[in-house]
Amino acid sequence: MTLKKLLLATTLSAGAAVPGLAQEDFPTRQIEFVTPYPPGGSHSLHAGIITTAAEPHFGVSLVSVIRAGGGGAVGATEVAQADPDGYTLLFGDPTINSLRPQVEDLAYDIDDFVPVARINYSPAIFVARADSPFSTLEEMVTYAEENPGDLTYSSDNLNGWTYTVFELLKARSGADMTGVEYGGGGPAVARLLGGETMAYAGDISVVGEHIESGDLVPLCVTDTERMEALPEVPTCPEAGYDVVFQFWRGAMAPAGTPPEVIAELSDSFEALMEDEGFLRLIGRIGSSIQFADHEEFAELWASEVEAMAAVAEMTGAAE
Amino acid sequence: MLADLASGFQLILDPVVIGVALIGLLAGLFVGALPGLTATMAVAVLAPFTFIMEPLIGLPFLLGVYKGAIYAGSIPAILINTPGTAAAAATAADGNAMARSGRAREALEISLFASVIADFLATIVLVLVAAPLAAVAIKVGSAEFTLLYALALTMVAAVSGDDMLKGLIAAALGVMIALVGLDPMSGAQRYTFGLPVLLGGISLIPLLIGMFALSEIMLRAEDDLRTPQRSPKMPGDARETGVSLRGFRGLLPTILRSTGIGTSLGSLPGLGAEISCWVSYGLARRASATPERFGKGAPEGVAAAEAGNNAVCPAALIPMTVFGIPGDTITAVLLGAFMAQGLTPGPLLFSRDAETVYALFAFLFVSNVLLLGVGIFAIRYLQHIVLIPANLLYPVVAAFCFAGAYAVNNAAFDLVIMLAGGIAGYAMRKTGMPIPPLVIGMLLAPGLENSLRQALTVSRGSFDIFVTRPGALALLTVLCLLIALFIWRGLQRIHQAPSKGKTS
Q1: Stated pTM of the model
Q2: What is the residue range of A188's domain?
Q3: Is the bond preceding residue B196 a cis peptide, omega within 30 degrees?
Q4: What chain B residue is nearest to A75 in terms of C-alpha separation?
């Protein structure tokens, strides 16, 4: 361990002395890209595409490692405790990196990670069943006010993204609604379609098809701008409630990873994001790229962490 | 629809597609037969490679892997009492007992034929009535799921062997093991003792490998120490006979029943092959005129478990293709692979990509024929594994135990779970405590807990939800009748026991 650090320090200082050398010395072996969720979700799907196309841009292969458990906490803890040498990266998101460490007692902290690169982000879309008694956000809140607690909605996981946007809506509107966590987007939408719940808010990859088929009605998107794919759907602030929370996907490294290594990784991700084959595959799963390099991402992330602290306070989730 | 299917066959009956599917099938067989390498893992690892293939090359390959792996889990279950996948745990009970009495080939053939027939019939259901069946399945709510899980839990009674008390203790242990980890609704830590590795709970597969395989090795080693140089016990001749036509005809009712169970459970998101195999096994035992043969080498046991788990494969594709809702992790991975090919499963899939979808349906039939051929060929060689001397075979199996337990999650802690499972399994077998109830308890507890809590959240704490919904009420009635039947039979046995004691 010490020897490794010493060696790393030596190579890095040598790299600083001779420009370009550091880039040749990192990476020298495969990099593990850890997805903290079970296979099959949108995260592991993105990870599969990223790791398939990564090698030409990283010089070494990026290996997709799936470490599910504890709603992401197990994988995140492992990466937080890994050697900070750039060879272990977490495929992070706002839930495990910004919100949950503030509201739950986890084995890692927010500052156990440093941001490397943001791949993309997407807003949640509030949806209701086509035969439900409301078809706009305003009507939904009115319904909830008139029938306190009767309005049931699906969400994926406690303190997850789809859960938090409803917490935000409840905090902003003061309406009383009953949430049920189903453990994932699939079952959450299934119970909405089956009539057990009345509303949901989730990613376009989960609700898009059902909006297109007319089974679900979109109410608003949790962003400050409308979505390209759904231009007629208002943003939540436009619809009357300031509920803005984007779900990003990005690479995080354990705190203590040398800045040169972070910069090198960020550059490699940037090159990958311009790869045509990669973009074609990302397009096929209905996703897109909104890249942010390590510096821009660090700023965005810092302000999000602050915003999440406010959310935690507002929704009373903080302990 | 038939015209669609016919053009589907035209697209799929292509030497390249068949070749790729065959490779997938063989890869699946290999992975499924090795304990610890699960079908989910294999499909998840191989899926990204198919992203760059043509849809009608990549998807048949993945579906081949899926089918091969689900079937192959039964091979080590029969031969060395070690289920290759969790879905084959019920196969081990009678399959291995058959192999030990010199009927390995028969057991392997029953498993293959039952798997293929069940898969074939379930595929017909998928093609003909996917949409209406999915429309019914989506109406099934948390209250019904709760009762379905509770009904499945009564299967503990069928797999407890002679001693119901020990069976119930084992089932309770399984439930308690399943509680470890994060509370799914409040996020509170349960029995984690502050250890981060326990946050994700106790992994089922390493534990199963320990309980079944490692304990088996320990028992064999112990036997060997007591009676050294014992040649492998093989009554009868090495040239075993396969299953007879007449014998197999007798299994058909069991296979049909189990296919029905597998298809129904598979079309409900959340209830997978792991649960279906136990329910089929339990019901087969209950329907049998000679239930006491179960666990001691009953061919019906093998047929029921294998038909039950293989029928789930096509059935799980029903909610996936119709609603884009995956039923289990493996269909979730397949869903991703479909999406990466630009085929978004969901309500619009059939109108938008009918040609590809029907080609894939056609492929499901073709793959069954392939599996049958590959299986018959493989069994000719595999049956001889039981003839390998134990002192050569079991060290290799032990190595696979460690490799497999680690491979599931790439976690060193899973090795600890596997070892603990091995010791616990050894102790349980020594004391006559059955292992299957523990597995069932562990499999069903999370689903039962989640759906109960979901149902009660929806009803805001009122238990009325279990009687006001017609589906729930029907299930509740069946559950109450079943429990009443158990109690009645138990009382009968207590009354009979003393009189029997006098006469003998």
Answers
A1: 0.85
A2: 125-221
A3: no
A4: B200
